[in-house]
């Protein structure tokens, strides 16, 4: 069975004196080996960010270290690199997608073995944004040095910042463990050999593709699909990463999170946090913005919306969030962060078919 449900997630992290994602040599530094952090300009103001690629790297590593995932090996050839492209054996190939030009050995009608080229691609069921500061930030260059050797120390500069940062993601629950293998760009997920292995393991033939007429899909067993989806969300409780962690360790687990299941691909919570103040350096959580999203998209939410917040973070909004839960008691659950993630994962498992 195929469903079109999507997990929509929005989160905030709170970091102090970090350099989570560097941009190489700083052209503004007085040091020859100064390092710049990633920044972007919007409306004339500077915002620090972590690239979407870096976020996925953190996510993958967390799934391996904390959830026991066996990650797909990376194969390098000349100037290209790709994973094994085997979503049956490697769950990260399933969830994070892949592209690989491969060859496969088959038998022709006369029983002779020959190799054929098989290019397989898979669009990732997991989409994520960059993690960007929710308010304007002015990174500062600080002086550091390597001074353990005899003689003069070796100075270098690095940009550091403190910020509340926001990110969002969407996980297509119907796509997890579900594959097509017909000859169309983006739809050749599997080789014929791997397709047959999945059919054999799943114990059934195919299901109809709800979006492409007269085409069929193959699926992994339901319990496997559920586990991969749940693990992907649960990894947020443990996620870690970032540059310069030795001297600038930062906790990148969510301090505020919203998790919901919708029937649409559009992310409803993208604009519930804004900046304020003369320089735009303070953040504001828009409770009215959350209310507006609930009212305007209430027909697209499936079951409950889970909101989690860590005590000590944005405590001024506690009463407002409690009132929100009271006003939408049949729709909203407001708890600590990890409790919200666990409760949503339980709901998610029941929603998958």
Please provide a written account of the structure:
The protein is α+β, with helices and mostly antiparallel strands. The protein has one domain (6-351). The chain contains seven helices and 21 strands. The protein has helices at residues 52-67, 91-96, 192-202, 222-234, 287-297, 318-327, 337-351; strands at 6-18, 22-25, 35-37, 39-42, 45-50, 74-77, 80-83, 98-107, 113-122, 126-128, 131-133, 140-146, 154-172, 178-179, 207-208, 216-219, 256-262, 273-276, 282-285, 301-309, 332-335. The strands form six sheets. Strands 1, 4, 5, 10, 11, 12, 13, 17, 20 and 21 form a ten-stranded mixed β-sheet that branches. The protein starts with 5 loop residues before the first strand and ends with a helix. The mean pLDDT is 89.
Radius of gyration, taken over Cα atoms and rounded to an integer in Å? 23 Å
Largest sheet: 10 strands, mixed
What is the H/E order? EEEEEHEEHEEEEEEEHEEHEEEHEHEH
Note the overall shape: globular
Instruction: Look at the helices and sheets and give the structural class.
Output: alpha+beta
Give the number of domains: 1
CA-CA gap between termini: 6 Å
How many helices in DSSP terms? Answer: 7
- Mean pLDDT score: 89
Q: Percent helix among the residues?
A: 10-25%
Question: Uncertain segments of ≥5 residues (pLDDT<50)?
Answer: none
What is the number of strand segments? 21
What percentage of amino acids are in beta strands? Answer: 35-45%
């Amino acid at each position: 069975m195929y469903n079109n449900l999507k997990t929509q997630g929005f989160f905030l992290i709170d970091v102090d004196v970090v350099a989570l994602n560097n941009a190489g040599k700083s052209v503004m530094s007085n040091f020859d080996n100064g390092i710049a952090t990633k920044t972007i300009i919007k409306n004339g103001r500077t915002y620090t960010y972590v690239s979407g690629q870096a976020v996925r790297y953190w996510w993958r590593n967390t799934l391996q270290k904390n959830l026991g995932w066996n990650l797909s090996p990376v194969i390098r050839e000349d100037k290209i690199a790709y994973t094994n492209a085997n979503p049956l054996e490697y769950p990260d190939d399933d969830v994070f997608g892949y592209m690989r030009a491969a060859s496969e050995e088959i038998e022709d009608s006369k029983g002779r073995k020959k190799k054929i080229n098989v290019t397989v691609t898979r669009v990732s069921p997991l989409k994520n944004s960059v993690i960007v500061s929710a308010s304007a930030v002015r990174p500062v260059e600080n002086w550091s040095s390597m001074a353990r050797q005899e003689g003069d120390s070796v100075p270098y500069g690095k940009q550091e910042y403190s910020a509340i940062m926001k990110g969002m993601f969407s996980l297509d629950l119907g796509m997890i463990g579900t594959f097509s293998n017909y000859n169309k760009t983006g739809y050749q997920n599997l080789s014929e050999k791997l397709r047959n292995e999945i059919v054999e393991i799943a114990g059934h033939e195919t299901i109809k593709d709800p979006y492409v007429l007269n085409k069929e899909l193959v699926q992994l067993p339901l319990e496997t699909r559920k586990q991969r989806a749940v693990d992907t969300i649960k990894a947020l409780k443990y996620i870690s990463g970032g540059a310069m962690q030795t001297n600038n360790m930062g906790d990148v687990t969510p301090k505020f999170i919203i998790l919901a299941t919708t029937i649409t691909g559009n992310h409803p919570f993208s604009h519930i946090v804004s900046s304020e103040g003369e320089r735009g350096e303070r953040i504001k959580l828009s409770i009215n913005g959350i209310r507006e999203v609930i009212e305007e998209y209430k027909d697209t939410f499936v079951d409950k919306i889970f909101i989690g917040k860590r005590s000590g973070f944005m405590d001024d909004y506690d009463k407002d969030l409690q009132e929100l839960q009271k006003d939408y008691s049949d729709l909203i659950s407001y708890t600590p962060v990890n409790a919200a993630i666990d409760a949503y994962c339980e709901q998610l498992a029941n929603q998958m078919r």
